[in-house]
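Long-time lurker. I teach an intro course on protein structure, and each term I like to show students one example going from raw sequence to a predicted 3D structure in token notation. This year I'd like something fresh instead of my usual example. Would anyone be willing to generate the tokens for the chain below so I can use it in lecture? Attribution to the forum is fine with me.
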Amino acid sequence: METVKINGIKIAYDYRGHSEPLVLIHGYPLDRATWNELASLLENDFKLIVPDLRGLGQSDAVDKVYTVADLASDLASLLDHLKIQTAFIAGHSMGGYVALAFARAYPSRVRGLGLISSQLQADSQERKEGRYKSAADVAEKGVGVVVDAMTTKLSADVRVQMFVSAVMQRQKPSGLIGSLKAMAERPDSSKLLKTFKFPVVIVHGDADALISVEHGREMKAALAHAHYVEIPNAGHMPMMENPQVVAEGLRFLLR
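-- Reply from a regular --
Happy to contribute to a lecture. Here you go:
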């Protein structure tokens, strides 16, 4: 692990591998450890930059409100620190929202985009209210309410459930609250996807209980040149449930 001060916040990250740079952005309510298996499969294909988003993992928590655009800005500054001008960007779930925000703000820095178990649409009013309710619950009761609510929804695989449960339990309440509010206020990216000329890889499990596989299919339908990988029986954590297939999918960014 390495750390750097970015926008006044300590950001923790792993930096490993060779060849072309690929940023792997984890989802909510998790951290960079969820990429460990996949990273071991990709380190000979890519130079991997694997950060903990602000507030999560070993990166600093902040009390002020922030947006997915702020999270994308953190990543741009991390790339500046590493003297990397352009990179492939891949995000899982909330990390996909951050990847889209990065592509919106810094299109000339994106060599290709990977969207894993993610979606384009902004939250409905009902979903937004649900996120703020979850944030209030975390503030009152702690991270255990999220662990209880999400463990089985993330995956039906008991091994994965045990891993993600431990990851969620070590998160800071303020990090979960900040992430929930950032997701609730993210913009819709449906029109943005159609502007992408660079390679795009979409990966989705057909048993995803959090973001329906229909969202992955819709993204593929909206962008003819995208490479689409649908994984049978995989849930919301395909990079842990079937890392070899996800790794092969992301290698299409290099073609």
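Some talking points for your students: Residues 14 and 69 are 22 Å apart (CA to CA). The chain is about 45% helix and 20% strand.
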